[in-house]
C-alpha cells in the first residue's frame, strides 16, 4: 500500500457510505443555455464514502474496508476500482436500483469549483439487513458518510451501526456530506440523529448551517458542545479543530493550484482518519487532511492514484 506519509497502525477503518459513478464535465465559463457548451468529459468512480476509503488507504495507517450498495450495472467495475486503491470492498448489489450517478460540472475558469447533479440510486438503499456486527471485527474506527442520513432506510441502518459500535467501544466519525441535503433533512433532526458520535467533519458551509452562525470558528466551537471533536474544513483557509466549546487549533492550508475541487473534502477526511489510526493527535491528523485536500484539487476526479497494479 502506498502511503502519503504515515506508517502502518493497529486495527482497521470501516467506512460505510455511497459508491457512485461520477460523470465529470470540465468546461470554461458559464454554461451556454439552449445550445452547446464545450467540455472535457470523463466517467470516473466516486461517491463520498468510497472516496474517503480510497484516500484513507492511499494515506496509509492500517487496513481500510468499505461497505456500500450499488446496482448490478456497475458492481464489478466499482469493486475493481476500490481494490486497486487498496480498499477491501463489501458491496451489496441492489436487485432493483442502478448504481448512483453524479454529474460533476467543473468550471475551469473558477478555480475548479464544481456543481453536482445527483441521482443517489442504490447508494442510499442500505438497510439494517445489510449490517452484521461481524463487520466490526478487527475495526478500531467506524466512519459514516452523512449521505446515509438522507433516506429512511439508511437512517435505520445508521441507528443499528451506531448501537453496535457503542457496544464494542468503537469510535464513530461522520461527515455531514451536503449542505443542500441538510436543509431538506432539517438541522434539529440531523443533530438528533448524530447524537453519540465522536468526531464530526463538516465543511464551513455545513458548520454554519448546523449552528445558524455566520462565522466558521464560532460555528465549530458551538458544534463541539454537542460532539466531542469537531474538525471543520475550510478549503483554501485550512481547517479548525474544536473541543468542549473552544477552537483549540487553526491549521493552515497547503498551497495548491486547483484543477478540480471534486472530492477535496473526502480526501481530507480519508487522510485525517488514516492518521488517527496511527495514534496521532487530531491536530496532526488535521494537517495530513490539509495535505491530502491540496493534492486532491490538483487532479481531475475525486480519487487518489491507484495503489495496486491490476491482477
From TrEMBL:
Q: Does this entry carry the keyword Kinase? A: yes
Pfam families in UniProt: PfkB (PF00294)
Statement: the UniProt record of this protein carries the keyword Ion transport: no
BP terms from Gene Ontology? phosphate-containing compound metabolic process
**Any idea where the Carbohydrate kinase PfkB domain is?**
13-305
A molecular function (GO) term: kinase activity
Sorted keywords for this record are: Kinase, Transferase
* Family stated for the protein in its record: Belongs to the carbohydrate kinase PfkB family.
What is the designated name of this protein?
A: Sugar kinase
Amino acid at each position: 500500500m502506498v502511503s502519503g506519509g504515515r506508517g502502518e497502525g493497529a486495527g482497521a477503518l470501516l467506512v460505510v457510505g455511497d459508491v457512485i459513478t461520477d460523470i465529470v464535465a470540465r468546461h470554461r465559463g458559464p454554461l451556454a443555455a439552449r445550445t452547446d457548451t464545450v467540455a472535457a468529459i470523463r466517467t470516473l468512480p466516486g461517491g463520498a464514502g468510497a472516496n474517503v476509503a480510497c484516500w484513507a488507504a492511499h494515506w496509509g495507517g492500517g487496513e481500510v474496508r468499505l461497505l456500500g450498495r450499488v446496482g448490478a450495472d456497475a458492481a464489478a467495475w466499482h469493486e475493481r476500482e476500490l481494490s486497486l486503491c487498496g480498499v477491501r470492498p463489501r458491496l451489496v448489489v441492489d436487485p432493483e436500483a442502478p448504481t448512483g450517478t453524479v454529474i460533476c460540472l467543473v468550471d475551469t475558469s473558477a478555480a475548479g469549483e464544481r456543481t453536482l447533479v445527483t441521482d443517489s440510486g442504490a447508494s442510499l438503499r442500505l438497510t439494517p439487513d445489510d449490517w452484521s456486527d461481524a463487520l466490526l471485527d478487527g475495526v478500531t474506527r467506524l466512519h459514516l458518510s452523512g449521505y446515509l442520513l438522507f433516506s429512511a432506510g439508511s437512517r435505520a441502518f445508521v441507528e443499528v451501526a451506531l448501537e453496535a459500535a457503542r457496544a464494542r467501544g468503537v469510535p464513530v466519525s461522520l461527515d455531514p456530506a451536503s449542505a443542500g441535503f441538510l436543509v431538506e433533512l432539517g438541522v434539529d433532526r440531523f443533530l438528533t440523529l448524530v447524537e453519540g458520535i465522536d468526531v464530526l467533519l463538516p465543511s464551513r458551509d455545513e458548520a454554519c448551517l448546523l449552528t445558524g452562525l455566520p462565522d466558521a470558528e464560532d460555528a465549530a466551537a458551538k458544534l463541539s458542545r454537542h460532539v466531542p471533536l469537531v474538525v471543520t474544513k475550510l478549503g483554501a483557509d485550512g481547517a479548525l479543530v474544536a473541543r468542549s466549546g473552544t477552537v483549540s487549533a487553526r491549521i493552515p492550508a497547503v498551497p495548491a493550484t486547483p484543477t478540480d475541487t471534486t472530492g477535496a473534502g473526502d480526501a481530507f477526511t480519508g487522510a485525517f482518519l488514516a492518521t488517527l489510526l496511527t495514534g496521532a493527535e487530531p491536530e496532526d491528523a488535521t494537517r495530513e487532511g490539509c495535505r491530502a485536500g491540496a493534492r486532491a484539487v490538483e487532479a481531475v476526479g475525486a480519487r487518489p492514484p491507484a495503489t495496486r497494479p491490476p491482477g
